[in-house]
Amino acid sequence: MEATTKRITIDPATRLEGHAKIEILLNESGEVDRAFFQIPELRGFEKFAEGRPAEDMPQITSRICGVCPTAHHMASTKALDSLYKVTPPAAARKIRELVYSAFMVEDHALHVYFLGGPDFLVGPQAPAAERNVLGVIARVGVETGKQVIGMRRKLRELIASVGGKVIHPVLGLPGGVAKAVTPEQQKSFQQTAAEAVDFARFTLEAFEKLVLARSDYVDLILSDAFTHRTYYMGMVDARNRVNFYDGAIRVVSPDGAEVAKFPPEKYLDFVAERVEPWSYGKICYLKPVGWHGFVDGPESGIYSVAPLARLNAADGMATPLAQAAYEEFYRRLGGKPVHHTLANHWARVIELLYAAERLQELSADPELVDPNVRRLPTETPTEGVGIVEAPRGTLIHHYVTDARGLIRKANLIVATQGNAARINLSVDKAAKAFVRNGAVSEGILNLVEMAFRAYDPCHGCSTHSLPDGIPLVVRLRDARGNLVATLRRGADGRLLREQA
Amino acid sequence: MSRDGAQGASQARVLCLGNELVADDAFGFVVAAQLKQAGLDAVFSPEAGLNLLEAMEGVRRLIVVDTILTGAAPPGTMHLLSPGDLPTASGAPLHYLGLLETLALARELGMAVPSDVVIVAVEAADCTTVGGPMTPAVKAAIPAVVDCVRRLLASSAPADA
Fold first, then answer.
1. H or E element: which one contains A68?
2. How much of chain A, in percent, has pLDDT values that exceed 70?
3. CA nearest A445 in B: which residue?
4. Which chain A residue's Cα is nearest to B127?
5. Which domain holds residue B96?
6. For chain B, give me the number of helices (H) and strands (E)?
7. Taking CB atoms and an 8 Å limit, are A471 and B87 in contact across chains?
């Protein structure tokens, strides 16, 4: 078959697939009945995994997300430890956490500057055409922009020097890592880590100066539109401090009390999944509390993950500078827990500082260069669960295999599933505030986009067919399901409205 | 540093994007393999946004091969696009920087990224099924796209925008 060549200019009004969609359903009197969001997600992974050797999973799963492959690689590697019932030697655990900390610094920095930046560093009231990466550079300066890119490069070099290419990691094996760290490598890691700490401190100062010093920004963070009183989940160390790589999963209630703390293997006792007719993916809730619809409060099993949730679910940070920033965070925002979604941006900066400090601690650890980095598995594999805190929240890998280690069943719970219900609370609240009598005012797109970026949900991002960057579309339907209007952003950043 | 790319850089690079594990998104992977087999300089990357920086630096001309979902043409249709044809870089990004936003950022920071970018995109049908087969019409477009890229490489003149 001959392919036809056609030169086209894609009109901004073209119906593009792959959008994040907000659907608003109106009732007979033209008021919002309910609103929800949909994002395209990958399908068929569980089936794809069946019959494959479990040992291939750290490589395969790192390919299902083009944004955070390292998180999948690490969750998968830990699931293999659990599957083969083998505890890696101390040096291997430290090398893994070192690599993971470098990844968290990199990912959080990019988010703070380039994704969250347009909302806060540029500002929510700035013209839409300036609220993009170029607007961020105009605000923070070219030198800072270069510093972000330079830091990212060094961190990726660190990751690659231990674990191979970021997108083709060869680091994690059941019971350890593929190779030891040399004293020369360690020296270079220490240099990178020191720079990372300086960079994170600079970022926190910039955030304080550009965001927290502005009472209008702080008011926005505190505003009711972005506030939901839900449960929070995050991984903690033995002293209930935030940890990204290993520990127990802790859940706190909307009033901040611990309601659960469990090892990864027990996750099914606490996390349940449900499918809504309109959703592409599964939505998670707390099993012991139960599903009671899209409402917040202690009676509802809706919980949240990601930076704000991790800070809320912990008692503090394990490094000194991050701990000081943590205390300031709760002092300024009125105590624990904080229920304001937009506080995720501030929480992310605090975690960035923690990850950099942790990177520095690990890079200075004498045990890091111990050549004993692998404990060979001897047990017959049956079932394993591995959990890490991905930048966007708790990430769970669960494999069941036959005695040869071939996958019989794989279950992945990605961070966005943990936040999906709460994101829908935000969408519903925004819709009710901005839709009156069937008329939708344009502020809705801004509000929903800001909530979306604060959570930064994962979606099928390993597929990056054009146009990338996942634009958002709001669709309004009447009581009979007919499309009434569509709202989206045009190429100039301004809103386009199409009446159906 | 010049905004037109690295000094003295005159070569073109083919950057094929996609994910070989995901249905039609494997398109870029297959095209890259065929170009490499023909001895041409093609790079495949399953990464997105800023992670593509290294693959874009130091060349004068960048030819991007990717899938596209416009919904306005049948699967397998080849689109020859310039960056201005794509409605990205509008407003704040939602999840990660797109290819063109990354290029814009790199230029703003004075990095050596190409000023001449041409995109060969094939209309896809399924870019979300892991392990899914490529749609026959998309698969059938491979020779035409490979041929188009070879012609683009052969021509020294910049693509008309």
1. none
2. 90
3. B91
4. A463
5. 12-154
6. 5, 5
7. yes
DSSP letters, A110-149, are: HIIIIISHIIIII-TTS-GGGSSHHHHHHHH-HHHHHHHH
Largest Cα span, chain A: 71
- φ, ψ of residue A171 to 5 degrees: the values are -75, -60
- Enter the DSSP assignment of A43: B
Q: Which residues of chain B have pLDDT under 50?
A: 1-9, 89-91, 157-161
Alpha carbon of A290: minimum distance to chain B alpha carbons (Å): 30
Q: Which fold has domain A87-227+340-376?
A: Cytochrome-c3 Hydrogenase; chain B (1.10.645)
* Domain ranges within chain A, ordered by starting residue: 21-41+423-499, 87-227+340-376
What crossing angle do the helices spanning A183-207 and A142-163 adopt, rounded to 10°? 150
Q: What are phi and psi of B118, to 5 degrees?
A: -125, 140
* Structural domains of chain B, count: 1
Closest listed residue to residue A307, CA positions, set A42, A139, A115? A115
Q: Which residues contact A87 (CB under 8 A, 6 or more apart)?
A: A81, A175, A375
Compare CB distances from A149 to B87, B109, B124 and report the shortest one's residue.
B109
Q: What pTM did the predictor assign?
A: 0.91
Cα angle: B119, vertex B121, A472; to 5 degrees: 95
